[in-house]
């Protein structure tokens, strides 16, 4: 399990919104193109294949944490130093 | 969207929803198609026998025997929402026993991409032409019609009757010999 958890998959909040817009746009676009092409060649299977290609492309572009999804990291406050207060009660936690 | 698995889930469900929409649009795009077309039929040999019907009552019933010609071009019926056609040839007639008799004599499946230009000569029927009594001998108005059932990718399963039919008579005497 360590191997799986060590793979970085995190994308930030702005990146999540971007990824969602991107996969919707890609799959919708491929479905429209696939519908038109399938109608032209009168083969519904062609529409399904084109939609499947859109799915794969969307998966490649939005599943891994590409750098464009990690440009807005949250500015966390610096951790407060609490060592002085609890120094006397070590081991209680 | 916060983890890889939720992203996979979101993409997959969206793709499948879009696929359902596409299928429905495909159905809508073929909703108004007119699937009727012409077919020419003719009977070549027509014979009637009187033999025991062991499949039903063991009484002697009328058994029609015929061979037929069939000529039709169904290739323009295929579109992107037709997977296959189920053709069937029906004999329709009226007897004193029944107001309407319908007997399916022959059928055929044509898959998409197969040859749909049919020109059969002197074909045997696939199924027995039994009457439930003695209504066939000397019957002078039996009508052959060709119909097809359209099996689509998505949508309705219409039964369409071909334009064109053929009426024939049965002989007034039973045939005793084997045919």
TrEMBL record, chain A:
Q: Give TM regions.
A: 22-41, 48-66
Location in the cell: Endoplasmic reticulum membrane
Where would you say this protein principally sits, based on its record?
A: endoplasmic reticulum
For this entry, list what GO says about its biological process.
protein targeting to ER; signal peptide processing
| Transmembrane helix among keywords | yes
Span of the secretion signal? none
Keywords on this record? Endoplasmic reticulum, Membrane, Transmembrane, Transmembrane helix
Topology relative to the lipid bilayer, per the entry, is: Multi-pass membrane protein
Q: Name one GO cellular component term.
A: signal peptidase complex
- Give one Pfam family: SPC12
Region called Disordered, residue ranges: 70-93
UniProt family annotation? Belongs to the SPCS1 family.
What the protein does comes down to: Component of the signal peptidase complex (SPC) which catalyzes the cleavage of N-terminal signal sequences from nascent proteins as they are translocated into the lumen of the endoplasmic reticulum. Dispensable for SPC enzymatic activity.
List the protein's name: Signal peptidase complex subunit 1
Recorded source organism is Vanessa tameamea
TrEMBL record, chain B:
Q: Which biological process terms from the Gene Ontology are attached to this UniProt entry?
A: protein targeting to ER; signal peptide processing
Output the superkingdom of the source species: Eukaryota
Q: What is this protein called?
A: Signal peptidase complex subunit 3
Q: Which UniProt keywords apply?
A: Endoplasmic reticulum, Membrane, Signal-anchor, Transmembrane, Transmembrane helix
Organism encoding this protein:
Vanessa tameamea
State its location(s): Endoplasmic reticulum membrane
Which PROSITE patterns does its entry note?
A: PROKAR_LIPOPROTEIN
Q: Which family does it belong to?
A: Belongs to the SPCS3 family.
Q: Which GO terms describe its cellular component?
A: signal peptidase complex
Show the Pfam families listed in the entry: SPC22
Q: Which residues cross the membrane?
A: 12-33
Q: How does it sit in the membrane?
A: Single-pass type II membrane protein
Q: What does this protein do?
A: Essential component of the signal peptidase complex (SPC) which catalyzes the cleavage of N-terminal signal sequences from nascent proteins as they are translocated into the lumen of the endoplasmic reticulum. Essential for the SPC catalytic activity, possibly by stabilizing and positioning the active center of the complex close to the lumenal surface.
Chief location bin: endoplasmic reticulum
